[in-house]
Amino acid sequence: MNAEMRPSNTHAVPIKNIERELICPICKELFTHPLILPCQHSVCHKCVRELLMLNYDDSLDGGSECSLPGSPRSRVPSPSMERLDKLVRSGSISSPGWRRGSVTPRVTTIACPGCQHDIDLGERGISMLFRNFTLESIVERYRQAARAAVAIMCNICKPPQQQEATKSCMDCKASYCNECFKMHHPWGTPKAQHEYVGPTTNFRPKVLMCPEHEMEKVNMYCEVCRRPVCHLCKLGGTHANHKVTSMSNAYKILKEKLAKSIHYLISKEDQVKTQITGLEQLISQTEENGQLAERQATEHFDRLFETLQERKSEMLKSIEQSRSRRMGQLKSQMEEYQGMLENSGLVGYAQEVLKETDQSCFVQTAKQLHVRIQKATESLRTFHPSADPCFDEFVLDTSREETLLKELCFGGVPDAPMIDLSKSRVYNEATIFWRLSDDHQPTDQHLLEYRRLGGPRRSPTQEDGVWQAMECIHAPSTTVSGLDADSLYAFRVRTCRNSVFSPYSPEVTFHTPPAPAFDFLFNDKCGFSTERLVLNKRRDTVESMAGMAFLLAADRVQTGSYVSLDYIIGDTGISQGRHYWAFKVEPHSYMVKVGVASDTKLLEWFHNPRDTSSPRFDHDSGHDSGSEDACYDLSQPFTLLTVGMGKLFIPKTSPSSSSAATASGDPANRALPMPQRLGVCLDHDAGRVYFYDADNMRCLYERQVDCSGIMYPAFGLMGGGKVQLEEFVTAKRLTF
């Protein structure tokens, strides 16, 4: 080691402090014959075997009760590492993960317990892995430091005269006392040249051998795989095209890097201690602040409970007072009526008074008696309870308070997100995007809810008006599947941070298309004009360039000659069913025709010579109309709608067609503002095509079309123009 590296030795870490680095991640014990995995993590040899055998057992039938040697169900003592290496290399035994000729599937992949990466051991299995001799030596030194009082005894001396070993021979793999070492390694013999070290129980080979070429020594280092290799590996093996360097160079470079890294870590010891102190303070503060927050929350809830208890007592007292008052009034009235029953002699007395013949005496007595009888009669005619038994005025409405309590949360409630209408798209699946506030903090998750508001078709799993939730969304977007066609859906979203939910975003509604999405890309082969049309690499955008060809036709344009459209179609046709697709026409487009066309019409468009001599020949209408306002012939196997210069032009309506234009006779009223997104729905079975404003799913125009052949999405462009397909339409076709 060079001079600048030597000072690091003064800060050597005691070996007893490195135990955590010497523990196998599987068995949680000190490494025993560790192997180096390709990911540079080390695992005990027996643990790797058990992992392979466990995977092998899992690959068998679940009801099999067979037990393999070394498996957890039938474990036997393992022989020494050297014997295992010899048996595996000679082929006497093989790891079940790579047994040749086995009828069961080979299991050669294990998950590294350190980094969880899948490690493929290939057909050679365990034998392709290097033994980590350096780690073995460190483990052995650790064991010796742990049992310093236990001496290593001479392997030659026999008890009771067995002496303590003073040397260990790496060639003989044995330990000797001084006398035995001199006896077995006499001067002048080959054994005298053996390598000897201090007493140890860890004997490793002098030279590291290549696991793939068992008779070759490793003498190079592969910088790509970062592992030692032999010259055969470099010449014609798996490392033939890899960059390799000499072992001495790799040793020097790696040792310098490791020494520098260790020196850097040691030099930062004070910084690490400071950071540890800071972490301890943070842990203490976290514990104290958490307990304080619990106490404060408990105090707040206790005050709420006290307030609720006070209000409860006051309201129950009011009810009790009203009940007592009403009971007294009703009881008094009842006593009065009972008195009327008890004074029934009043009637008999009145009858006797009627027998009086002396007029003056009768009037004197009957006057007072009549007043009493009149009161009793009036009370019977107009009976009214003296108190109302209903307590409706004491009915308590706590719905608002319950809502407030449910929304009770800590300070720092996240702001409500906003659903992004410009990015969100709804087909038979909905892709919903939302925006968070500009000053928002990181959120834990999002919750999206949606409900069906109505439509002609209903899924048995979706009830109108019932919110359905999608939880644990970690990105500001998600996809909702299984939506009904031609239905209205509402969406809302809220975010969660530290278990605290934000308010819901304002609800937004989307109308699903009348049919499932039809996926296709632009066809770059069938009749595609590379001179006038530019197609991007994804084949989802086509642009018409008013270039040289258009300028060369300027003379004919001046004399009234018609410059034909350049057509492009989808690469997938429709032969049955209902399908919907959407696209965007750039507002600056001069003229674009969009719709559908059959394969028979495409042959005429793409293969017949273009006749531009007649100034009245309309190439896309199929007849000499000379006017865009002419009604389409119902037998035509195509339908194209004209879009351009920021307008959408509705053709004259026919008995089989309908339009959103209010006055079909006036061309000015048939020019509608160009929608941001256009949608087309083809019902092949019914022979009908529909054009929609894709943002609100409002039908702009529909008509009958001859669907006798295979129908294709068709587009015609003239002058400058651009058409871009919706991402949802192309998503299934664009895979990367």
TrEMBL record:
MF annotations from Gene Ontology: ubiquitin-protein transferase activity; zinc ion binding
Residue span, B box-type domain: 205-247
Keyword Repeat: yes
Location of the RING-type domain: 24-66
Coiled-coil region list: 269-296
An annotated GO cellular component: microtubule
Pfam families: ANCHR-like_BBOX (PF22586), COS (PF18568), zf-B_box (PF00643), zf-RING_UBOX (PF13445)
Residues passing through the membrane, by range: none
GO biological process: acrosome reaction; spindle organization
InterPro entries recorded: B30.2/SPRY, B30.2/SPRY_sf, Bbox_C, Butyrophylin_SPRY, ConA-like_dom_sf, COS_domain, E3_ligase_FN3/SPRY, FN3_dom
SUPFAM superfamilies referenced in this protein's UniProt entry, alphabetically: B-box zinc-binding domain, Concanavalin A-like lectins/glucanases, Fibronectin type III, RING/U-box
Subcellular location as annotated: Cytoplasm, Cytoskeleton
Acetylation listed as a keyword: no
Keywords tagged on the record: Coiled coil, Cytoplasm, Cytoskeleton, Metal-binding, Microtubule, Repeat, Transferase, Ubl conjugation pathway, Zinc, Zinc-finger
Family matches, as SMART domains: BBC, BBOX, RING
All residue ranges annotated as the COS domain in the record: 354-411
Segments forming domain B30.2/SPRY: 500-734
Location of the Fibronectin type-III domain: 413-515
Membership in a protein family: Belongs to the TRIM/RBCC family.
PANTHER family: E3 UBIQUITIN-PROTEIN LIGASE TRIM36, E3 UBIQUITIN-PROTEIN LIGASE TRIM36-RELATED
Identification of the protein by name: Tripartite motif containing 36
Species per Swiss-Prot/TrEMBL record: Hippocampus comes (Tiger tail seahorse)
Record lineage: Eukaryota, Metazoa, Chordata, Craniata, Vertebrata
